[in-house]
């Protein structure tokens, strides 16, 4: 981009730097009118340089989102703007504007030809504008982004002619449409004969033949001839045929002659001599322009471009002398000098109308620029030094403005079609409610831990506070105090009966599903139809309404704690998160990524206060036991050294039992767990901050700087704006939390069947955060579900489950991480409670 750097006495210098225009030294008012004009020129040059920083990205999938486009290109440099265009029929395309031209060149080299979800991307510099362009040719000196990065566009001999294009068609629209037949290396759109015509060059002969005709295969391939052409403004049916080389030669000759000064002067001299001789002969003028063209054409088969040439008209007049004495030639000299204007009057009127509109838009853009300059002068006089930011309307004044949408005229069906995810989530919730009711009514209950839960609750209600004495059929109580409070309330409501408890757990299942659907809809990562996967698990339905495990309450509370995180309510989220930990300790698998997110979004005081609130919840819930038998409570409720039974293991059944129960196996899995967390934090979660180590150093440096400043003088507004705290994106929060928990699940020594609820609701989200094709994602989901429904687990089912987990983890690792912060927002500490 362009930066304005003024010296003390000399004029301003221009250098390429960034998107904003900074006045480094001096004042505009000090330099007089010259510096003011120079700044206007610099702003105009900065606006025109957008073409070297804007990329066209073609052949995108039809279901792509703007966030996925940003994930593809963010690593090449700062992105100014992304314009995603998804037509009713794929493929889609996008325009990506970088701050630096060299970043755009790096993105071309890195992403041109990249295979994205089965689509080979086409990345090149966007020439000729983005919208309703009248141009038309792409033979510019900027190049097309392929091959030399700055040379001319490639041409080939495999050329087709496209007629019937809408007047709003641009070369890029034509190129996108014709890519259905093969690789296009050049496209051009021009006005001819009152219509719009295009020329397309293919890289090989087969693609050209496929565009204009069909192969003689048993299954007939559809050709592009007589197909519907669409863009953002209009549609129409086009005709495609092979390009005739003689057409280009005749067009070039007619253009060269029409543009040659000698040809113009010769036509004028001949018309003067003819009109003078005919006026002396006393001929009467004929006002019709059509009769002139008819009298001049020697034969009806003569092409138009030949009749426009002056050298071809003189022999025809010599051969037909009665036509040479046409009364039409007695018109006034100034009308006979320009016969082409009379034949293209309607076309010139339409072009002049478009020219006037563009001029008005350009004047409007210049007025906006002048307004920004006056604002800059006012800010300079008041002492504020702020960069000039070009508004979107000023950066592209010729872009067509969208008409305001009339929301009242939209029907319910149109609204659902445009945004089906919310309505589909409600429909899915209703359908799953009916399915859950049918399961409770017709599928028999399986007794596993319910009696043990009730026995432990009975001891608590009778006044026992020693955790080592609270036992059931499955052994001593190993859950924190929140578990006792919840199941005591359930026993009070149901009287210890199973069927009323099933109804209560059915409501809990629907509440949990509603919270998860809200998270999915709010983050908009998974397509609407994939939300169905959240209701297709036989094992999860069984865990909730047929087994009545305490994992159901723990995971529901955890999912509820994610909702405040989406709104940057960190203290409230930590309180609910601590309540989930008090039901079952597996929720602590989310603690490492949660702590990292807190360090990103909050200052040191905010992190400490949020952690103190979570600790206070644990103290209050466990207070009756901490006052009586604190050691027994802490050693049983938070026992990290439990050894599980090998028979119930779903993930490591292939490991021999002596190794499975050994301490070395447990320590190796713990080391693997911590190592994977460190690797993901260093190279994925904190990649934008330069890695985990660099991020922690910068955070502690900011904390020391804040402490030193506040000890000297009070905090002012300028320091707050530069504190470095930003608002985290919702997608980054949810992805980091789900990935951290999934790493813990992969490294868990034993996964029992009820543990499937720990990460089932995050599986579709994690699968769509990988770069795998949709078919592979669905196969991985089906593989996980199949392994969890095999009872008892086998060696082969455990191996398959572990392999699927590793494949998903590799997909999360290899996929480029997204930019973690919201755009143009800062000071998240003010909104983070």
Distance between the termini: 38 Å
Total E-strand runs: 15
What is the share of helical residues? 40-55%
Structural class: alpha+beta
What value does the average pLDDT take? 74
Shape: elongated
- What does the main sheet amount to? 5 strands, antiparallel
**Total DSSP helices:** 35
| Count of structural domains | 3
- Arrangement of strands in the largest sheet: 10-11-9-13-12
Q: Which strand-content bin applies to the residues?
A: 5-15%
What topology emerges from the helices and strands here?
Elements: E1 2-5, E2 13-16, H1 28-48, E3 54-60, H2 66-73, E4 79-85, E5 92-98, H3 101-111, E6 115-116, E7 119-120, E8 122-125, E9 158-165, H4 171-178, E10 184-192, E11 195-202, H5 205-212, E12 227-230, E13 235-242, H6 245-259, H7 261-280, H8 289-296, H9 304-307, H10 310-319, H11 321-324, H12 333-336, H13 339-343, H14 345-382, H15 392-395, H16 412-418, H17 420-442, H18 450-461, E14 471-472, E15 475-476, H19 481-494, H20 498-523, H21 538-547, H22 551-566, H23 570-581, H24 591-601, H25 604-621, H26 623-628, H27 630-637, H28 657-660, H29 663-685, H30 692-712, H31 717-721, H32 730-746, H33 763-767, H34 774-788, H35 795-814
Antiparallel strand pairs: 1-2, 3-5, 3-8, 4-5, 6-7, 9-11, 9-13, 10-11, 12-13, 14-15
Helix pairs in contact: 1-14, 16-17, 17-20, 18-19, 19-20, 20-21, 20-22, 22-23, 23-25, 24-32, 29-32, 32-35, 34-35
């Amino acid at each position: 981009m362009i930066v304005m750097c003024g010296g003390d006495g000399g004029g301003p210098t221009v250098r390429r730097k960034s998107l904003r225009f900074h006045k480094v030294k001096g004042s505009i008012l000090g330099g007089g009118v010259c510096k003011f004009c120079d700044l206007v020129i610099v702003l105009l040059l900065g606006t025109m340089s957008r073409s070297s920083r804007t990329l066209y990205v073609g052949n995108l999938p039809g279901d792509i989102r703007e966030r996925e486009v940003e994930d593809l290109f963010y690593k090449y440099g700062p992105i100014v703007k992304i314009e995603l265009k998804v037509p009713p029929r794929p493929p889609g395309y996008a325009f990506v504007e970088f701050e630096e031209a060299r970043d755009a060149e790096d993105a071309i080299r890195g992403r041109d030809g990249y295979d994205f979800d089965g689509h080979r991307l086409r990345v090149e510099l966007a020439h000729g504008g983005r919208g309703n362009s009248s141009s038309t040719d792409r033979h510019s000196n900027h190049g097309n982004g392929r091959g030399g990065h700055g040379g001319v566009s490639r041409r080939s001999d495999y050329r087709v002619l496209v007629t019937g294009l809408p007047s709003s068609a641009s070369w890029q629209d034509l190129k996108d449409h014709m890519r259905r037949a093969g690789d296009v290396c050049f496209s051009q759109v021009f006005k001819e004969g009152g219509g719009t015509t295009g020329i397309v060059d293919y890289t090989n002969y087969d693609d050209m033949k496929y565009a204009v005709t069909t192969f003689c295969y048993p299954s007939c391939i559809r050709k592009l001839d007589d197909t519907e052409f669409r863009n953002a403004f209009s549609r129409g049916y086009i005709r495609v045929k092979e390009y005739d080389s003689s057409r280009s030669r005749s067009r070039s000759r007619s253009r060269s002659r029409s543009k040659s000064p000698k040809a113009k002067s010769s036509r004028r001299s001949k018309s003067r001599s003819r009109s003078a001789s005919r006026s002396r002969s006393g001929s009467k003028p004929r006002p019709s322009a059509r009769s002139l063209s008819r009298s001049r054409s020697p034969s009806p088969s003569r092409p138009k471009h030949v009749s426009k040439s002056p050298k071809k008209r003189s022999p025809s007049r010599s051969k037909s002398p009665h036509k040479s004495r046409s009364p039409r030639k007695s018109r006034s000299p100034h009308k006979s000098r320009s016969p082409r204007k009379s034949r293209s009057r309607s076309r010139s009127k339409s072009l002049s109308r478009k020219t006037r509109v563009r001029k008005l838009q350009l004047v409007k853009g210049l007025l906006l620029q002048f307004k920004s300059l006056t604002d800059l002068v006012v800010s300079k006089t008041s002492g504020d030094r702020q960069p000039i930011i070009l508004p979107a309307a000023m950066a592209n004044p010729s872009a067509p403005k969208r008409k305001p949408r009339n929301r009242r005229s939209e029907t319910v069906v149109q609204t659902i079609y445009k945004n089906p995810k919310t309505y589909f989530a409600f429909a899915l919730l209703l359908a799953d409610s009916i399915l859950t009711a049918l399961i409770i009514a017709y599928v028999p209950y399986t007794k596993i831990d319910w009696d043990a839960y009730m026995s432990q609750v009975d001891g608590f209600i009778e006044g026992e506070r020693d955790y080592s004495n609270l036992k059931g059929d499955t052994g001593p109580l190993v859950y924190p105090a929140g578990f006792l409070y919840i199941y005591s309330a359930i026993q009070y409501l149901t009287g210890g009966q199973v069927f009323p408890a099933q109804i209560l757990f059915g409501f809990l299942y629907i509440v949990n599903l509603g919270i998860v659907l809200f998270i999915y809809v709010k983050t908009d990562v998974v397509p609407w139809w994939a939300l169905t996967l959240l209701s297709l698990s036989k094992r999860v339905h069984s865990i909730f309404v047929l087994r009545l495990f305490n994992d159901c309450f723990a995971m529901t509370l955890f999912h509820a704690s994610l909702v405040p995180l989406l709104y940057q309510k960190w203290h409230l989220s930590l309180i609910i998160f601590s309540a989930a930990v008090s039901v079952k300790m597996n929720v602590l698998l989310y603690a490492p990524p949660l702590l990292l997110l807190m360090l990103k979004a909050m200052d040191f005081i905010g992190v400490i206060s949020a952690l103190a609130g979570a600790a206070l919840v644990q103290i209050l819930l466990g207070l009756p036991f901490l006052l009586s038998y604190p050691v027994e409570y802490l050693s049983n409720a938070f026992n990290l050294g439990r050894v599980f039974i090998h028979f119930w293991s779903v993930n490591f059944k292939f490991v021999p039992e002596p190794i499975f129960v050994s301490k070395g196996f447990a320590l190796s899995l713990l080391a693997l767990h911590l190592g994977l967390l460190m690797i993901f934090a260093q190279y994925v979660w904190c990649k934008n901050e330069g890695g985990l180590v660099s991020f922690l150093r910068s955070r502690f440096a900011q904390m020391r700087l804040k402490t030193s400043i506040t000890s000297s003088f009070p905090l002012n507004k300028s320091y707050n704006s530069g504190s470095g705290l930003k608002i985290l994106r919702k997608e980054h929060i949810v992805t980091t939390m789900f990935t951290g928990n999934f790493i813990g699940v992969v490294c868990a020594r034993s996964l029992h069947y009820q543990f499937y609820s720990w990460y089932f609701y995050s599986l579709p989200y994690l699968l769509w955060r990988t770069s795998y094709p949709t078919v592979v994602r669905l196969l991985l989901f089906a593989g996980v579900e199949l392994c969890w429904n095999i009872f008892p687990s086998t060696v082969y089912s455990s191996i398959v489950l572990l392999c699927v987990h590793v494949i998903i983890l590799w997909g999360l690792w290899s996929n480029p991480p997204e930019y973690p912060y919201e755009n143009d927002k800062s000071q998240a500490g003010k909104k983070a409670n």
